[in-house]
Specification:
By secondary structure, the chain is an alpha+beta fold. It has one domain. It has a five-stranded mixed beta sheet with strand order 1-4-3-5-2, with helices on both faces. The chain starts with 17 loop residues before the first helix and ends in a 7-residue tail after the last helix. The model has no long low-confidence stretch (mean pLDDT 83).
C-alpha cells in the first residue's frame, strides 16, 4: 500500500483476493472509465483515450487490449498469438489485457460477481460479453515472471484448464486450489 501512495490519487484497501479487490476498487471509483490493470502490466501511452473512444461506440460495454510479453524469446510470441486469438474468438478478456468498462457497467458486474471467483477475470468478462466488447489493437506489455517462475507450459495449460472447468460449471472454490495466488 505504501508503494502505491505516491503513484495514485487515492489508495483503497480490500481483503485478499482479486475478486474482492476489484469490487472494492469499482465501488470506490469516481471516474466513468474503469480499467483493471495488473501490477506488472505496462499500458500503451494512449490507453485511456483509446478505451474512452471504444466505450463511446454504440453498444460497446467494455473491452481490453492486445497482449505483448516483455521478453524477446520466440516462445513468448506463441503465447501472445494464442492469447490474442483466444480473446478474438471467445470474446473473453483475461486480466493481463487491462480490461476496461464504464463505471455503471463495472458496478453492475462487480456487484454480481462472486468475490472469490477463480478465474475472476473470466467471470467478469463473461458478463461483459453479453454486450459488444472491443478488443483494441494497442498492446499492453506484460512481465514474463509468472511463466518463468511456474514454467511456460504448466502455467499456460493450468490457466486454460481452469477456464474450461469454470465454463463447465466447476465451483470457483475448487478451482482456487490450483491457482497459487489465492492459496
Amino acid at each position: 500500500m505504501e508503494l502505491a501512495r505516491p503513484l495514485a490519487d487515492r489508495v483503497v484497501v480490500a481483503r485478499r483476493g482479486r475478486g474482492a479487490q476489484l469490487n472494492v476498487a469499482a465501488r470506490a471509483a469516481s471516474h466513468d472509465l474503469l480499467m483493471f490493470v495488473h501490477v506488472d502490466t505496462e499500458l500503451p501511452p494512449d490507453a485511456f483515450d483509446a478505451a474512452r473512444a471504444a466505450l463511446a461506440r454504440p453498444g460497446v460495454v467494455g473491452g481490453a487490449f492486445q497482449v505483448a510479453i516483455r521478453d524477446p524469446r520466440r516462445r513468448y510470441r506463441v503465447i501472445e498469438w494464442g492469447a490474442n486469438l483466444r480473446a478474438r474468438v471467445t470474446r473473453l478478456q483475461w486480466g493481463d489485457q487491462a480490461v476496461f468498462t464504464s463505471r455503471a457497467v463495472g458496478l453492475l458486474n462487480s456487484a454480481a460477481s462472486p468475490e472469490d471467483a477463480i478465474p475472476e477475470d473470466v467471470a467478469f468478462a463473461r458478463r461483459l460479453a453479453l454486450g459488444r466488447v472491443a478488443l483494441l489493437p494497442q498492446q499492453v506489455r506484460n512481465s514474463p515472471r509468472r511463466w518463468e517462475r511456474e514454467g511456460l507450459v504448466y502455467a499456460t495449460v493450468r490457466n486454460w484448464v481452469i477456464t474450461l472447468l469454470y465454463a463447465a460449471g466447476v465451483p470457483a472454490a475448487r478451482l482456487a486450489r490450483w491457482y497459487p495466488a489465492v492459496r
